[in-house]
Design a protein that fits this description.
30s Ribosomal Protein S18, single chain, 0% strand, mainly alpha
Length: 113
Amino acid sequence: MKFHARPVDDDRRNRDSSSGSQSSPPPGGRGGGGDDPLGLRRRSGRKRAPSFTADPTFQFDYKDPQTLRHFVTERGKIVPRRISGLSAKQQRQLTQAINLARKVALLPYTGVK
């Protein structure tokens, strides 16, 4: 049994190639714009860890909320390891530091509405 490709009529082929602008994604769809705050659908692959975490003596400090905010989303969730690019040990230290900072009210538990 042989399958043959369906012929494409010429005006459809010309219309697709002649249009210079790309069509916008459908409303409510998953476009490639700013609707991806966690970077889950990146084209370049996995996000790199910040350079300051590459130092082997680096420790996350719960008293430094500015550093910890890099690893918390707007909704207050801790960014997963596959996105942040941290090692497993660093991710555990980060989680402990964020939870301690939340307990002493340096970081919010939830995001701002």
